[in-house]
Amino acid sequence: MTAPVSAAVVGTGFMGSVHARATLAAGGRVPLVAGSTADRAKALAARVPDAVPATFEEVLASDVDVVHLCTPNHLHHTMARQVLEAGKHVVCEKPLAVSPAEAADLVRLAAANGAVATVPFVYRFYSAVRQARARIAAGPRAPWLLHGSYLQDWLADPAADNWRTDPARGGASRTFGDIGVHWCDLMEFVTGQRITALQATLGTAHPVRAGRPSTTEDGAVVGFRTDSGALGTVVVSQASAGRKNRLTFSFDGPDATYVFDQEDPERLWIGGREENRVLLRDPVRPGERPDALPAGHPQGYHECFADFVADTHAAIRGAAPDGLPTFTDGLRAAHLTDAVVRSAANGSTWTEIPS
Questions:
Q1: Start-to-end Cα distance in the chain
Q2: Which residue stretches of the chain have pLDDT < 70?
Q3: To pair with 314 at 20 to 30 A between CA atoms, which of 135, 156, 252, 352?
């Protein structure tokens, strides 16, 4: 394939616009956009060059190469299945599905159809993250203490509400299922270690939200063990005032500690027993993405998303990009979320994770 990859974006909210922008930045085309209503599709199409509004059925019958699903969580399984059965590649927002069984079904179907099927765990694409990953892999001893947080404040107001707070549409876990899985994916990607068991406690800042009882968590504290014997904790919240999108990790080892802050992504802090260093992003450094922005031009969320889409396009063309998150990673996130829900429901008991 030498022509630009053509994509349809299904879903017209914030994430739909992000996917459309990233596709164009990656050199692709977005000829079709679909939404829950014709008016929503028209509104997004008006903001995307050369796009026209369509129904989901028209997307399935079209000749686009890949479909981006940016719809509410409970629709992911059914819609992704239809896309795969239509013979198209698919990018599905996380969570891939609201249960491990649904996610496993999509993994099987994508493999059977030979489809490229990816999930946008885009924080993998920060240069500082890739540097930490490469240095940990090359180090003599693995990190043994893995900790961090992912904090937001968009639900700090008790009146704030949308479909994500409804377990029938968002899933049994809201905060961990929405952002906790990002942190866990990043931890496993960077360290190469896998969570084998976890212990979770869920909580709410507002027992009543938008005039009705809260039925999903505002935050979680999760302890875990890994297959390398490391210990870890992650704290997640969507009701922490002033925290807009603060994902941080500290992966501590006896030889080096690596610290990353998504709100200050140009820097990787490396701690040593005799000296500490701050590594600034520089695309001429070995291991950096060769098409990255020049040093001093901050890499941000949109750039990472465009790199994720570019690697998805490369996979569609037959390449095997390193670190591209696939439906298998989406299934992994579903298992972790299910374990968090079960642990919390059983009094924060230790709960094993399927390998």
A1: 36
A2: 1
A3: 135
